[in-house]
Write a structure and sequence with these properties.
This protein has 177 residues and is mainly α. It contains 6 helices and 2 strands. A two-stranded antiparallel ribbon has the order 1-2. Helix 1 crosses helix 5 and helix 5 runs antiparallel to helix 6. 22% of the residues are buried. About 7% of the residues have low confidence.
Length: 177
């Protein structure tokens, strides 16, 4: 193979070349390639990156930060951080742990979507439904039961924000298909 002296990656290109206006030339062992990224391709890449970040954050919160794991395996300690005392009611603990398992499994699937592009769309659906259903249910509780503690209000806002971001990204993903 003859080396024609072309740059091997965009960082090696002359700084005077604008990637938005002109195609980039790349040399490789297979020959010379000309690439040009359209605005829609750039937007799609941006959306994919934002999707990965959103799914990673929402998945970590649902699993690693302790929601799923905490509620399933240590419900007393988890709820005590928000000022909630569960007591020893076996039926209540059973109900708490079951929702913790669902959040944990959902969070693991959401994390899978952050890693595997083929699962990302469905993971956005799961994340949107999970977080928005919790947030909207807390709004119902606000109307029916009154204003909870500040930490519960912060959780409400977090759930609505994460669910909203995932829903917006879901719309973008659907539009780009």
């Amino acid at each position: 193979m003859i080396d024609v002296g072309l740059p091997k990656c965009p960082a090696d290109l002359d700084e005077r070349i604008s990637f938005e206006d002109k195609p980039a030339l790349f040399g490789s062992q297979y020959g010379v390639f000309v690439t040009h990224q359209t605005q829609s391709e750039k937007q799609k890449m941006k959306t994919q990156t934002l999707t990965k970040i959103a799914l990673a954050v929402s998945g970590v919160i649902a699993t690693g930060v302790g929601v799923g794991v905490g509620v399933l395996f240590a419900p007393h300690a988890f709820h005590a951080t928000a000022g909630i005392m569960l007591g020893e009611d076996i039926n209540l603990l059973n109900e708490m742990r079951s929702s913790g398992g669902m959040v944990l499994v959902s969070g693991l699937f959401i994390l899978l979507g952050a890693i595997r592009a083929k699962v990302a769309f469905l993971a956005l659906v799961v994340s949107s439904v999970l977080y928005l259903s919790y947030g909207l249910s807390r709004l119902v509780s606000l109307a029916a039961d009154g204003i909870p503690s500040g930490s519960m209000l912060q959780i409400l806002v977090l759930e609505l924000v994460i669910g909203g971001i995932c829903a917006i990204l879901l719309q973008r993903e659907r539009a780009s298909r």
